[in-house]
Amino acid sequence: MGQDTSYLLERMTIVGDLGAASFVPWIRRHAAKLGLSHTISHMSSMRIELEVAGPEELIDMMEMGCSLGPIDVWVERIDRTAISSERT
Asked: Considering the entire predicted model, what is its pTM?
């Protein structure tokens, strides 16, 4: 019997002290390890916006990873906005 999985496309906005040069490569590696498709649409020292696509549980793991992130950044909050979803 197959498992019911939600495949989502979400915009994730990360806000905080994000000026460390290591954070964006860290985000890319973390998304790749989780098997999430991702596109970074905005980068600044205070805000990063990315679109992530994949199963909801893995997007949740991405959010948790980013909130704990590398030691040289301080994430104040992460806002998530659903762009689309489908069930498989």
From this structure: 0.87
